[in-house]
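User: I'm putting together a small comparison set for a docking exercise, and I want a reference complex before I start. The sequence is below, and the ligand is manganese (II) ion. Could you produce the 3D structure with the ligand included, as structure tokens?
Assistant: Of course. I'll restate your input first, then give the structure tokens for the complex.
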Amino acid sequence: MSELRDKLLYKPKHGLDRVSEAEQAEMEAYSKAYMSFLDNGKTERDCVDTAIALAEAKGFAPYVPGMDLAPGKKVYVNNRGKGIMLAVIGKQPLSEGAHIGAAHTDAPRLDLKPNPLYEDTELAYFKTHHYGGIRKYQWVTVPLELHGVVVKADGETVKITIGDKPEDPQFIINDLLPHLGREQSKKPLGEAIPSESLNILIGTAPLKDDDGSDRVKLAVLAYLHDIYGITEEDFISAELEAVPAAKARELGFDRSLIGAYGHDDRVCAYAELHALLELDVPEKTAVCIFADKEEIGSEGVSGMMSEAFDYFMESMCRTQGVDLRTCYSKSFCLSADVTAAYDPNFPEVYEKRNSAYVNYGVGLCKYTGSGGKGGASDASAEVVGYVRNLLNANGVIWQMAELGKTDAGGGGTVAKFMAQRNIDTLDAGVPVLSMHAPYETVAKLDCYMTYRCMKAIFEDAR
Ligand code: MN
Ligand code: MN
């Protein structure tokens, strides 16, 4: 009877029981590299800069329309410093399609408002506007760093990164003390911390030898002017992002997990990038995308809805004398994005038979969306079958994943924007615990298997 059980029943096994010693060693090395990518990539802009440095070290060059695109050629397009597309030209022409990995490197955070700086009761603050879906109560009393750019009145762009070096100051949003929190504690979680109270404390020392008002605010401006040459009006044309200050760390006595800010979706972006950088001359042209703006709906010139991607692909197709739409119709895209990992602390929102589990490998999602699959691209059985068989043939540990119970909520990815282009697309990625929190948790095994999944797709000849 046990033979029949083995033959007929679907029983996924724990990933750590299935990896070889050699794979385990590779997984550890991969995890270290990924953690260093995270520490260098706290924002979408930082991720682009980091990707370019890694890619150029591997022989990638900026793409120039009309340039020679011989098999093995490695190029990238920097989309306004906020997104990046990299390609390794394959042996087969683009008329046979490309193998694409699409991840996003924007993450939930607190953006400074256009007029952020104010003083109240001799404390100086930045007003923020949160970006993406956050649970506001999680962002108070968490040390923050500031990353971004300011475009000054004279047009010069100043880059600001403060809080990530040990000698740097950091920033904080205060919360109420429990002693005085009786009324606040009665409020629902979603209402206890209103958006307009997410104000970052940035200074308390007043300007000396001044008897005017707002001396603390003025002292902060004087500091900013000294260091960066900026004035208050310059905040109008700035993108400054407050992000959690913690570094990526191994978690657990067994060190099987990685804690960090921004696993969603840098964990999949890095998997794609790492796999792409290892390619020599793939059969199909391999394309890796770091998209921006996914957390606010993939809008904007740097989001996946932007024609920046089509412009790049069409330009490469033209060089090869290929019609873009023919290329798309033969292409495959893995929409590489994280999914929710089953959390036994909150069993009420997960459907146990169809959840992704930590340490069970890359999670394939036939569909995302909410309710009756609303907003999902819902991949076909054929597309799921292709990936399932490819991963099995390459010894990649994978699992099937749904994002929680049907009635519990839902979410989307860039998959539907790739499918809209007539590209066969499947969602897949790393299961994450406490997704969108300032500090998210993933398992090393799942990170490594997502990389192995991308590698198998980039190297496949179909
Ligand atoms: Mn995501
Ligand atoms: Mn997300």
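The CA atoms of residues 56 and 62 lie 9 Å apart. The radius of gyration is 23 Å.
User: Thanks, that's exactly what I needed.
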